[in-house]
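If it is no trouble, can you show me the amino acids of a protein and the tokens describing how it folds?
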Amino acid sequence: MSANLRRRLIALAIIAALAIIASVIVGRRRSRDSGAVDGAATPATFRVAIVLPGPHDDHEWSQAGYEGLQLIQKELGATVAYSENVPSAGFDEAASGYAAKGFTLVIGHGAEYAEHAEAVAQRFPRTKFALVALHPGNNRNLGALRFREGEIGFLTGAVAGLRTKTKKIAYIAGMKFRHLEEQAALFERGAKAIDPTIEFAAEWLGSWTDVEKARGAARGLIERGFDVLSINADKAGLSGIDEARRAGVYAIGWNLDQHDVAPATVVTSGVQRMPVVLLEGARLVRQGRWEGKQYKFGLREGAQDLAPFHGLLAREAAATVSRLREDILSGKLDVSYSEGPAPP
């Protein structure tokens, strides 16, 4: 081989090597410029599973979780899976199975899974876990997702304060859960922001399905002069709304816009969109920003809002509610809530 040919081959090899290096550098720059966060999963590797306490099509709690999983698949391109009708003791097996298969995020849709989620999270430190509950998390891989209950609690209370004629309003709920205690406390605060002399009462049914108990609670309050009832009790709550309709007083619905249940009775509803809460939590994981703590979402993220008033609130009163909503969004109005120590 001549010296000239050898020099040409060496030059070509150097040029090829430089081209490969330049390609790698450009590729890395494009990856950074795309907005990816260090530690974030790519769509191809982002896998999310949810464990549901009931059937995925129950039209209630479990279906809301399943619809959240579908939204995560649609918006984030995740590969998804679910387990349904899983009792609290079954969470360990279901969640461990997903973690062992390399799922990025495993969601336990309910506070009943807390104890088992804590144990599974310790065994699988590289997997992210989320409880849909009030839970402090472990500051590592286990966190929790909930609504900012105080925002919508305060606004529904303000609506009640503006709508009542007897200055007596009440809150009826299925179970005395901590997040519902927050709703009730801020409902009272919102009403008294309108009129400090308003009387408030809370009724806890101890059931989401006992329609007669809900009807009796509503009837008892109405007989005592309460003319606006905020009712958050799922199936049982429908009978409470019907009792308000029969008595000619007003009701405030929850979770969905319940205006169609009693069009002349339901002034508004506290609409809560669980799928949005799950999507926002998954987005944090997808972006590599999951810190294993309690995350709450509300008006700003579109996770909750008031349903329309359907002509049952005067224009001036509706404008007052709108101003209060803007004050909450801007931080001018504090609707925070001190939960106190966790129950034993």
About this structure: The longest strand covers residues 266-272. The domain at 47-148+276-297 is CATH 3.40.50.2300 (Rossmann fold). The chain is about 45% helix and 20% strand.
